[in-house]
Specification:
Helix content is 83%, strand content 2%. It has 206 residues and is mostly helical. The two termini are 24 Å apart.
Length: 206
């Protein structure tokens, strides 16, 4: 059975994509609240902003124990501290957020979020992104090194088989007719060794 991959599902489960989708709406939601309050001249409920912040906090935590853990990608102590600092800031904003907000309060909140929260969001996203990319690159380099080692080992084995088959042919030829069948076998072994090296080179150059 051929395994198939849903690219949309893979993209949606990408840890960086999930973080971006969770963190981006926070300032946008606050801005919309301020605009709505300004347009209606009435305080606006902040439940949507409460929800956006709660989702962001949960996603920062879940990405680390979910998709990143399944990929065996772990933040180091400094990187974890950056993520925890953002969670703390988001928690304080959520805790201090009133149930309703006026236009003036909304504008002040938006300005505060842009000055204090947006830089922290950018730093956190860069931290996760760099860790993810660095890990992927490191693993690719390790895989390439392992493939190169395997190539050298296979080539060494093929060469040994090749020379053993030549020696066997020489020895078999000394026995005349009695060794003819062994000569055929050694020739086949030599051909297989050459084919193995050719196939390996084609595979690596593909």
């Amino acid at each position: 059975m051929v395994e198939t991959f849903d690219l949309e599902t893979l993209w949606q489960n990408d840890p960086i994509v999930r973080l971006e989708k969770a963190l981006t709406p926070i300032v946008q939601t606050a801005t919309f609240l301020a605009l709505d309050a300004f347009a209606s001249h009435d305080p606006q409920p902040t439940d949507t902003l409460h929800h956006a912040i709660r989702v962001a906090i949960l996603e920062i935590e879940d990405v680390q124990v979910g998709p990143m853990a399944r990929m065996n990608i772990t933040l180091d102590r400094g990187e974890k501290r950056i993520a925890d600092d953002l969670i703390s800031k988001l928690s304080r904003v959520k805790r201090d957020l009133p149930d309703q907000i006026s236009a003036d309060e909304g504008l002040i909140l938006c300005d505060t979020l842009r000055k204090t929260l947006v830089p922290q969001i950018s730093v956190t996203l860069d931290t996760f992104r760099n860790r993810f990319i660095d890990t992927v690159i490191t693993r690719q380099m390790q895989s390439a090194a392992a493939a190169e080692r395997a190539q050298k080992e296979i080539e060494t084995i093929s060469k040994k088989i090749f020379f053993v088959s030549i020696n066997a042919s020489v020895e078999a030829s000394r026995f005349g007719e009695q060794g003819s069948s062994f000569v055929v076998i050694s020739n086949e072994i030599r051909n297989l060794a050459q084919q193995a090296q050719t196939s390996l080179r084609q595979l690596l150059s593909a």
